[in-house]
Design goal:
Helix 7 (116-127) packs parallel to helix 17, helix 9 (197-215) runs antiparallel to helix 10 and helix 11 packs across helix 12. The protein is α/β, with parallel strands linked by helices. It has three domains: 10-113, no CATH class; 125-191 and 325-474, 2-Layer Sandwich (Nucleotidyltransferase, domain 5), CATH 3.30.420; 197-317, no CATH class. The protein contains 19 helices and six strands.
Length: 509
């Protein structure tokens, strides 16, 4: 049995390679996460007197951080851990071992038990109002302890912070607006095949045939229902091999597949009158429920000659996935979760995640209020694209003295127009970091294709991507700090103790 400790220190870790480097990134990450704070919440999901002891929060959370950062598969993550003593220190082991501390299949359970809400809470705790941008609410090192105490209280808006770092009693509405809030939304596509009506119906037919094969041994002496599976397969392949089938050919193929699916559903319903539903596996039961909904939707669209229906099923294996209309040239429609994020001081926070399409304009007010709750004041400006500039949002920002990016309404003089164009160009340039965050998340942290198949696991993966992006930025800030020019060395040494206290508070949380 491995010894796992949430509070293990670097000196206590036993390694055959000598003492670990305290500047290693995995060691830095281990010092960022408040492991003990969330251990109890994580342990509440397990029984105390049933089964083997659950894996501790540090091992589960550390493993998910490693997986998201390296973008490796579950099997590769286990191999990485048994080869790397720094990773073993991150997950809380006391000594280096070449034996896997858990199986690759356990990582799926980690994603189930560590929810997206818990990850977002950790993200807010660690990175909200840590590195505000210039002119924002900033913590600065003072020349003595009293100055540092005053600066810390000012940076939190004069209110009392709760155990999660949130401000319970922020300053009133008379506090001056400071800082910049950047808003945007995107889609995190799921790992599904591009859905077409014929392909979905063909897949549904094949799964129904497998269900009939499962139920038939319990059907006593009754003959096996005829499914015409070979004829149906031949007709599907005849259509699928056409390079550019016309509208009539598509409707004809849909009609035939609908008939086969309807026939199989009737056979299964007749068999289930005599056979308990429990003879099917849990996966097959879920597939049968999804296929019934899919058939109803496809029949409605065929009869009404339309391509739109509410809560449209685009994947039998992941029925929670919905089409998200983006309007982009590269991908007009994507299939996955729509997410809204806010960017403050270079750190990104997941404000909203939904599998159904929504209009992100409604997120502006809630994001601004969240900024106020964490910083003790409203932002000086909000940078967002055109969809956020509704009448309601404009009036809200005007009432609070917040400048919303984009041209104001009404007629303007030529001189004013020229200045507004310059201001709009500056705002557009300042809004680029949020696009960079989307690019970073999709190119490095897996947001371009969510490989998890379960709804809750997918939400955990998406939330973990933003947490790891913020951890990466914190590490870059640490690296930038240690690359100090030589001309600064004497000043830094003279004020070492003051600077040390400051960086322990601000940089290391």
């Amino acid at each position: 049995m491995y010894r796992i400790d949430n509070q293990i220190s670097l000196a206590e870790f036993i390694s055959p390679f000598g003492e670990l480097d305290q500047e290693n990134r995995w060691v830095k990450i281990a010092g960022m996460i408040p492991w003990e704070m969330y251990e109890k919440k994580y342990a509440e999901q397990f029984c105390d007197d049933n089964g083997s002891p659950a894996i501790k929060f540090r091992m589960a959370m550390g493993t998910l951080i490693i997986k998201q950062t390296t973008s490796h598969s579950d099997d590769e993550v286990v191999q990485d851990i048994i080869e790397n003593p720094y990773m073993q220190f991150l997950i809380g082991l006391h000594e280096f071992t070449t034996t896997p501390p858990f199986s690759a299949s356990s990582i799926t359970n980690f994603r189930k038990y560590i929810s997206a809400e818990m990850i977002n809470e950790i993200n807010n705790l660690l990175f909200r109002a840590v590195y505000p941008e210039p002119g924002g609410v900033t913590e600065k090192p003072g020349n003595n302890d009293e100055d540092r105490d005053n600066d810390e209280s000012d940076s939190q808006g004069g209110g009392d912070a709760d155990s999660h770092g949130n401000i319970e009693n922020p300053t009133g509405s008379d506090a001056p607006n400071k800082g910049t809030l950047i808003l945007d939304a995107t889609c995190a596509p799921a790992d599904i095949a591009y859905p077409t009506d014929v392909n979905l119906l063909n897949e549904a037919r094949e799964k129904l045939e497998a269900i009939i094969d499962t139920l038939q041994p319990y059907n006593f002496l009754a003959p096996k229902p005829r499914t015409y599976r070979f004829e149906a397969r031949r007709e599907y392949l005849s259509f699928a091999l056409k390079r550019r089938p016309g509208v009539e050919k598509v409707r004809e193929a849909i009609k035939k597949q609908l008939a086969y699916v309807a026939r199989n559903i009737r056979h299964i319903d007749a068999m289930l009158e005599r056979i308990p539903l429990e003879r099917l596996s849990i996966v097959q039961q879920a597939q049968l429920t999804t296929i019934r909904i899919l058939y109803t939707q496809q029949l409605y669209m065929y009869e009404n000659n339309t391509h739109s229906v509410g809560d449209r099923i685009v994947s039998i294996g992941q029925p929670h996935v919905r089409p998200i209309v983006r309007g982009k040239a590269k991908a007009p429609v994507e299939f996955g979760a729509k997410i809204s994020i806010s960017l403050t001081g270079g750190y990104s926070f997941l404000d909203r995640l939904s599998w159904d399409a929504y209009n992100e304009e409604s997120d502006l007010i809630s994001s601004v209020e969240t900024y106020k709750r964490h910083n003790g004041c409203y932002p000086e400006r909000v940078l967002a694209d055109k969809i956020y500039r509704t009448k309601e949002n404009r009036e809200y920002c005007k009432r609070l003295g917040i400048r919303l990016s984009g041209p104001p309404l009404g007629r303007r003089s030529k001189e004013t127009e020229k200045e507004l164009r310059k201001q709009e160009a500056r705002d557009s340039a300042d809004r680029n970091p949020v696009e960079g965050k989307f690019g970073e998340g999709k190119s490095k942290y897996g947001l371009n294709r969510i490989m998890a198949r379960i709804k809750e696991s997918s939400e955990t993966v998406i939330s973990m991507a933003f947490l790891c992006m913020n951890i990466s930025k914190r590490l870059r800030e640490l690296l930038r700090f240690f690359q100090i020019p030589a001309s600064f060395n004497k000043c830094f040494v003279d004020n070492f103790f003051v600077n040390r206290d400051f960086f322990e508070i601000v940089v290391f949380g």
